[in-house]
Amino acid sequence: MRGGFFLIALALCLTPCFLSAQTTYNYYTLDYPSAAGTLPNDLNQAGMIVGSYLDGSNTSHGFSFNRGGFTAINVPGATFTIAKGINREGVIVGSFGTSTSSSSSTHGFILRHGSFTQVDVPDASNTWVTGINDSGTISGYYIGSSGSTQGFVQAPSQAIVTEDFPGSTETAVNAINNRGDLTGQTSPPFISAFLYTNSDDQWTDFYYPGAMTTTGDGINNSGEVVGIWNPSNPSAPSEGFLRSADGTFQQISYPGSAGSGASGINDAGAIVGNYNDSAGVIHGFVALPQMR
Q: What whole-number distance in Å separates Cα of residue 178 and Cα of residue 183?
């Protein structure tokens, strides 16, 4: 990790900051030691970060970062592990792979107090768990019997409920907040991000201005969404974005990078994501809003 004042700056922003329409951020690189690539995915209000890193064989392993130290997260016997979400209590969710001589599949997991619980949508060929809120409700997506991608949520001790963008054939839910609001992506015609507001049961799809595709990857309790957008020029790099609760946008890009993506945001407005350097190496970052 670069930036010696990271922990101090993070501690200063553990209570919600009042942000303007265009917020100025301080960016800090966050790299898992000796990794070939680092991809932070989410952070909670206490500043604990989860994500994945790539080893020398390009295999994904999960990690958590807390109080300046990294901890690897690997589901026993898995071919890969990705940590995607974390709640206030430090419960972590994500996905892992299994493989036999004839097939391979993806499953979700919940990691609580050091113990893994596997999550599989009934009759699905693959399941990904992508988010968890403070009540323990999880979100994710799966490949159904039709072969299409469908979103889902599951409250503790309750049945899995499919959540699909109206009229779409593909829906992936990537994050959930305490109000039960969701974000992710849907298609066709092109991949667009969406926001589902639970209070009024409304689905809204959106694109970053001028984007060819947009994905919603993280959401906080204020309804702010972060994600990734791709320009119409296929040779131009993808970048991150912040969509404020009022629907206005701001680009999120690590300074001097060759492309960025934003993946998680907490209630203080701190953002995690990743960027590519000039050599194509993927690094993680934390973006902290400047105090005003």
A: 13
Residue 124 to residues 144, 150, 186, Cα–Cα distance (Å): 5, 10, 19
Give the Å distances, CA to CA, from 10 to 7, 89, 120: 5, 18, 35
Tokens at 278, concatenated:
């000039």
Contacts of 25 (CB under 8 A, 6+ apart): 252, 271, 287, 288, 289, 290
- Of 2, 12, 4, give the one whose Cα is nearest residue 290: 12
Distances (CA, A) of 235 to 39, 216, 230, 250, 258: 22, 22, 10, 22, 11
DSSP string, 114-181: TEEEEE--TT-SEEEEEEE-TT--EEEEEE-TTS-EEEEEE-TTS--EEE--TT-SEEEEEEE-TT--
d(CA 91, CA 89): 6
pLDDT digits (tens, 9 = 90+) for 155-195: 999 999 999 999 999 999 999 999 999 999 999 888 999 99
Copy the structure tokens of residue 149: 């991608």
How many beta carbons lie within 10 A of that of residue 210, not counting itself?
9
Q: Give the chain's domains with CATH numbers.
A: 6-289 (2.120.10.30)
Residue 153's Cβ-side half-sphere holds a number of Cα atoms within 13 Å equal to: 22
User: Is 12's pLDDT higher than 80?
Assistant: no
pTM of the model: 0.92
Residue among 221, 276, 230, 269 at smallest CA distance from 254: 276
- Mean pLDDT of all residues in 39-46: 97
Give Cα 157 to chain centroid, integer Å: 24
| Nearest to 174, CA basis, from 203, 147, 145, 194 | 194
Tokens of 219: 């959401």
